[in-house]
Specification:
about 15% helix, alpha+beta, Thiol Ester Dehydrase, Chain A, six-stranded antiparallel beta sheet
Length: about 170
């Protein structure tokens, strides 16, 4: 995975819950396209909802991968539900809380809550802005019988670096 949509893992309770954060920065190129200034309108840089969902998928995917010792190639199989009720603007911080609902040899189901942490003159304000329920598959246990490379191309060195710089032991 080349693009990371989380910056740091704050909490990891194995097979239970993972909390991660993402600081939205105006230096991120995708913000300039969502939405650029036009005739008669000022720019309105927001983080696209699809990338917020991807941030939750990465957070929950790490929780699922960790539960299996990172031995399986964990891939997002289905977005059961996703509701984002508010935009994330530059300077905001997203907090992803992924909770394991089910885990077995074929995959896992997770529930997620996305919160927006904004800095105000009175201090940080935290608001829930979304709920995202996801299903993951263990790629090597697929029913199609397809062969995949032996190395774990899902959990790359980028994920290992994220874990270790967040203070968690990598595989």
């Amino acid at each position: 995975m080349r693009w990371m949509w989380i910056d740091r893992i704050l909490e990891l309770k194995p097979r239970e819950r993972l909390v991660a954060i993402k600081t939205v920065s105006l230096s991120e190129e995708h913000l300039h396209d969502h939405f650029a200034a036009g005739p008669g309108s000022a720019a309105l840089p927001i983080m696209p909802a699809s990338l917020i969902i991807e941030g939750m998928a990465q957070s929950a995917g790490i929780l699922v991968g960790h539960a299996g010792g990172f031995k399986e190639k964990v891939v997002l199989a289905k977005v059961n539900s996703a509701e984002i009720t508010r935009e994330a603007l530059p300077g905001s911080t997203l907090r992803y809380t992924a909770t394991m609902e089910r885990f077995d040899t074929t995959g896992a189901a997770t529930r997620g809550v996305v919160e927006l942490i904004e800095q105000t003159s009175g201090g940080p304000v935290c608001t829930e802005i979304g709920r995202i329920d996801l299903m993951f598959s263990h790629l090597d246990q697929n029913l199609a019988g397809a062969e995949f490379p032996k190395h774990n191309f899902v959990f790359s060195d980028t994920f290992r670096t994220l874990l270790t710089t967040s203070g968690f032991e990598a595989w």
